[in-house]
Structure formats: C-alpha cells, structure tokens
Amino acid sequence: MTYRSMLVALDATPANAPRIDTAIALARAFESHLIGLAPAVAVDLQALQVAAAMDDYAARASAAMIARARDLAHHFHDRCNAAGLRSFEALADKRPAPESVPAHAQCADLLVMSQPDPSLPNYRQHLADLEQVLMSCARPALLVPYNQREPLRMRRAMVTWDGSRESVRAMTDALPLLRRAESVALIHWRAPANDNRTLERLDCLRQWLAFQGVEAEPHDEATTLAVGDALLNSASDLGSDLIVMGAYGHARWAERLFGGVSRSLLQTMTVPVLMSH
C-alpha cells in the first residue's frame, strides 16, 4: 500500500502556501500524482441585506467566488511547475468545500488540509466545514497545523487506539507514513480504575503492524485527564511529529454534546494529524 494520488484543498487563507509546500513534498516523496482542488466559497444569502437587488448581487458574488477559485488553481499549477513536480493537475469547483472535497477525494489516496486558524473572523465556519468534510470523506485526511511553516518531518509517529473501527482504519490508512517513521508508539489510554487487559490487544496490534513492516512500541497509559489532553501530553513527551487517530468515533451529536477528542485535536493540535472516519 502506498499513496499513488493525493488531493490538497486550496483556499485563500495564509495557511494555503505552506499547505501546498507540504503536499508537494509528500507527492515527491511518494512519487504521487497531486491534485490541487479550489472549491468556491458558498454565498450566504441570509446575510445579504439588499432585498431588491438580491438575485443580481448573489449572481455577481457567486461569479467572483468561482473566479477566485480559478485563480487559486492557477497559482497551484504554477507552484507545482516551479517545484518540478512530475505529475499534477489543478481543479476549480463551483461547489463549496463540504460538497466538493469529499467528492473529489474519492479519486485520491490521501487528502491534505489545514487546521482552521482561530484568529480568522470566519473561524467557526471553517471549523464546521472541516468537520463536515471529515465526517463524509471516504479517504484519510492529513491535517497540518495552521501555523506550521517548517517542512514536515514525521520521524516519530504516535498511533492512538481506542478499540474503535475508526482507530484501526486510521492505523491502516497511515501505513505508508508509518513505514517511513524512525519510531512508532502505539498508545491506549484508560482510567486508573480500569484493568490493563487491553495490553493484550495492543500486543496483537503491534504484531499486525510488524507484519506490515512497522515496528511499534505499545503503551497502555492510565490517566485521570481527558483523552484529548492526555494525547497531547503524550505527543509532547514522546517528541511525536505525527499523530494518527480515528475521527468522530461517536455520533456527531454526541461529539458536539460531550466534546469529542476529534474536535479537541482540531482546535489544539500542534503537530500534523492523520484522521480517518
């Protein structure tokens, strides 16, 4: 298993340029075909305050959004040319990201996106759009921190496991990256009162990873912290530069009600995170 094709989502945020650099570096490392996709931004008709000219305004606003998407696609094409990438294409889509990205990602092995920047005025909308993409996307997504400007290293990977199908799928989807890592930690967190029989399952997963060419060290961690906090603490302690985890293992209403690990990581991630739903 490898990544023969990758899709990078393009937008007009400051994180766009380093995200493209990350995608180009990954495409070069895996000799992959790289697709740059620029979705149009949805026009919020409810926010328009011009009743009489609404139809005309909406049409002009939509045309401007599509033109900007085409400009982003052209910029991506020029950037790949300048980088000497061997195989790539640039697309502009009239649909907004929550519709466009999952549809195009079906024809790629890996999706590259960025963590939303909380300093941007439309942060909540960006976060909601990203969550919608992750929930509906059939492919794994590599999320890059919004403030990351250095090249990706991904030498020390941390794979999280909670017994869910999502966590096992993420582990499988990350195999091309895990095979290149210098060290891989396979971690499960539990409350101190719970027994440690999960270590047997971790050993089975460690063996499965070994069959796939990945040597992993299992960790069964007892903690009183919320899993999201424990995860970030472990990533810091281990010096991890890649986190692999399942996304939205619970129903979305439960994630919103109780504050899921997925959302916590989207808001506080400090290193790239590969998520699979």
CATH topology grouping of the largest domain: Rossmann fold
**Spatial strand arrangement across the major sheet:** 3-2-1-4-5-10-9-6-7-8
What's the pLDDT, averaged over the residues?
87
What is Rg?
20 Å
Q: How many strand segments?
A: 10
Main sheet record: 10 strands, mixed
Strand content: 15-25%
The assigned CATH architecture of the largest domain is 3-Layer(aba) Sandwich
Helix content: 40-55%
CATH class of the largest domain: Alpha Beta
- According to CATH, the homologous superfamily of the largest domain is HUPs
Number of individual domains: 2
Structural class computed from helices and strand pairing: alpha/beta
How many helices does DSSP assign? Answer: 10
User: What distance separates the N and C termini?
Assistant: 19 Å
Give the SSE string. EHEHEHEHEEHHEHEHEHHE
Quick one: overall form? Answer: globular
- Uncertain runs are 43-52, 251-259
